[in-house]
Amino acid sequence: MAETKLKTVRRQSARAGIVASIVAILVGLFGGGMANAAEKSLTFKGAFPIIGEQSVTAVVKAEIPATATGGQALSVPFTLDVDAGVAAGDGLRLVGATKISGNIKSSVTIKLASGDTVPLPVELPIPETPVPPEGALTFSASGTVEFTVPAGTPAGTATTSVDPEAVSHVVTDSDLGEFDVNLALDPPDQDTVLGTTEIS
Questions:
Q1: What is the rounded distance in angstroms from the CA atom of residue 14 to the CA atom of residue 78?
Q2: Among residues 38, 41, 77, 108, which is most buried (max CB within 10 A)?
Q3: Burial class of residue 92, CB neighbours in 10 A (0-12, 13-18, 19+)
């Protein structure tokens, strides 16, 4: 009987240790506030070399902290899943490109309860990605955005929204070399809210 109780205590202690480890990781990432997983699909338009203006779909994924305090440092994971369309793939195949890389520069705006806004730049690397033999050009860009909540930020709900412009810097292995695609929301009235954070 005593041995059974000891085994039970050990199992409970092990589970408690695992839970404590998970909590410690979350606290390290989000400063004690759990995160809200956000996923937002947005459509942009931009001019590409050779093929001209095209529509681009980007699915923005982010872990928005549920709570935060003034002066707190946050580490927020971001991912952009991009579908640049068949024409972009055709254009790259036309010039003999077999792979791309580069980065995406965008930003989000945090609107505080006071009405003030805080811009937050987001720059994510595009890893080396093969150009498919046919079909749409798709790729993902992922990274972590470091942000410190300004000291003295008023308590209340802060809303994080994607800004309407972004720039994709694309590097190819063809004579086309490197180029930028300046992107703007199209249509401009899309819902760009990623989530809210309670500031205390």
A1: 32
A2: 108
A3: buried
Instruction: In whole angstroms, give the CA distance from residue 92 to residue 55.
Output: 16
DSSP letter at 30? H
| Rounded alpha-carbon distances, angstroms, from residue 26 to 21, 92, 159, 165 | 9, 41, 21, 31
Per domain, the residue ranges of the chain are 1-30, 32-199
Q: How many residues does the chain have?
A: 200
Nearest to 139 by CA among 76, 82, 79: 82
Please give the Cα distance from 22 to 75 (Å, whole number).
16
Closest CA to 148 of 65, 79, 78, 80: 65
How confident is the model over 41-64, as pLDDT tens digits? 999 999 999 999 999 999 999 999
Residue 123, amino acid: E
Contact of 186 with 43, CB cutoff 8 Å: yes
Q: Which uninterrupted H or E stretch holds 81?
A: strand 73-85
Residue-wise pLDDT tens digits, 141-191: 999 999 898 888 889 999 999 999 999 999 999 999 999 999 999 999 999
C-alpha gyration radius of the chain: 22
